[in-house]
Amino acid sequence: MLESLNPQPQDKILALIAMFRDDPRTDKIDLGVGVYKDATGLTPVMRAVKAAEKKLWEVETTKTYTGLAGEPAYNAAMVGLILGEGFSDRAASVATPGGTGAIRQALELIRMAAPKAKVWMSNPTWPNHPSIVKYLGMPAAEYRYFDAATRGVDFAGLMADLDGVAAGDAVLLHGCCHNPTGANLSQDQWDQVIALLQRKGAVPLVDLAYQGFGDGLDADAEATRKVAAAFPEVLIAASCSKNFGIYRERTGILIALTSPDRKAVVQGNLNFLNRQNYSFPPDHGARLVTMILEDPALTADWKAELEEVRQNMLSLRKQLADELRRATNSDRFDFVADHRGMFSRLGLTEEQVVTLREKHGIYMVGDSRINIAGLNAGTVPVLAAAIAQVAG
Ligand SMILES: Cc1ncc(COP(=O)(O)O)c(C=O)c1O
């Protein structure tokens, strides 16, 4: 049986990580992998997470199964963090293994409810989106997103393409900090997208993987909250991997907003999907998040550290934009300071990306996406000088 399997294409980012690891140069710079790193190159365990883990070790008396949907306290805390007050009567939800698990369950829910519904994704998007949609055999469509000339959002292209959405289609939107481009809709543009999709009768699927990494915890949820208020049905797939720094704990949530009288049926279907795919969701990360969000002192410390992380990335953006101005004697990389989140797509050619890797030991994804957090004050000028050399 297994001899009939074909090799799977290698994941480009994982291949890049291996290439970086095997590079003997000591001054190499890794801007590929999508995890936050501090100035020393570490991905630290956040203080509040450490404190919660210590307390959990002391108070935990059992590791028996949670509920199929996860612990109600986790789900309630996450609905509050993402949506604020006023949605609990419409919000069915399940804890999932990371944001990826939430996206997978959201897509399966869409397929169960409406097998012919198309899933619209931005071009480009996080490569796992189209990959899972294809794996599930769902109809897919793309909408333009990135303007290669300005490195901002191609808003006219986006609106023109989304005009083709049919009633009942699902439209996947990055709630904030678009991956891979770093270019984001303004609030005014969000309003226009919402109005268009309302007219079309679309069902938004919001991927919120970086809340707190862009403009702040509430600001990054603003678009998601608007979407939640504007549509009768919304799916929100959120991840705690980045903003709580608990990547390997696999902590996420799928929220399905519906009408109060449909909530129980939708909840039952979410529970069913969890049961089919992995039964009970992982609990350790979810419990830490709950402990942090339910304890005012831990919440305050977590927010303070998350804000340091955000400010660090903003400051690196500014430093890089300034250095690139100097090194290229032009303002064409100023967009780096306007982008938000962990990533920016620089708009370099694949050839230039290869030259940066081979000649300068600077590793970025083939589409010229860099992880801003992979930089520090020392490496910013090195990157700027190298970019000026290959693309100046
Ligand atoms: C846009 C986007 N969505 C979802 C995820 C899922 O994250 P995880 O499954 O690690 O929680 C990621 C992670 O890189 C992402 O970039």
Q: Count of helical segments? A: 14
Number of strands: 13
Structural class designation: alpha/beta
Given this structure, which CATH class of the largest domain is correct? Alpha Beta
In the sheet with the most strands, the strands line up as 2-10-9-8-7-3-4
Question: Which residue ranges are poorly predicted, with pLDDT under 50 across at least 5 consecutive positions?
Answer: none
The amount of beta strand, in percent, is 5-15%
> Which ions and ligands are bound to the chains?
pyridoxal-5'-phosphate
Give the terminus-to-terminus CA distance.
Answer: 54 Å
CATH topology of the largest domain: Aspartate Aminotransferase, domain 2
Series of H and E elements: HEHHEHEHEEEHEHEHEEHHHHEHEEH
Can you put this structure into words, describing what you see?
The protein is of the alpha/beta class and 392 residues long. The chain folds into 2 domains: 11-44 and 311-391, Aspartate Aminotransferase, domain 1 (Alpha-Beta Complex), CATH 3.90.1150; 49-294, Aspartate Aminotransferase, domain 2 (3-Layer(aba) Sandwich). It contains 14 helices and 13 strands. The chain has a 7-stranded mixed beta sheet, with helices on both faces. The relative contact order is 0.17. The model has no long low-confidence stretch (mean pLDDT 97). The structure holds pyridoxal-5'-phosphate. Pyridoxal-5'-phosphate binds next to helix 4.
Notable traits:
392 residues, alpha/beta, Aspartate Aminotransferase, domain 1, Aspartate Aminotransferase, domain 2, seven-stranded mixed β-sheet, two-stranded parallel sheet, 14 helices, 13 strands, binds pyridoxal-5'-phosphate
